[in-house]
Write the structure tokens for this entry.
Amino acid sequence: MNRIRTALTALTTVLLVTIVPNMAFAADGIAAGDQGWVGLGAGLAIGFAALGCGIGQGICANGALHGIARNPSAAGKIQTPMILGLVLIESLCIYALVIGFLLQGKIG
């Protein structure tokens, strides 16, 4: 059940971060009434990416801490891949932030 929830969260985050901004970028010219949708897309991109990244980082830290608690001598071997994983997760959130800023730039 936990794996299904994690996979569903990751899939939802990926879909929302890729689909919502793409719908906004698909418009050549943004009409005055459609600017709210671009703002909504920017907010959703950042919000859901931050949610997914926060959940992913929590799961990563949980696994690492459980591994260290079971075998304290392996802390050095666990810490490096954990930090690398956290950096990769955080890069997805920064990518969503960049998309949000690009979308906000379309509102004029």
The chain has one domain: 2-105.
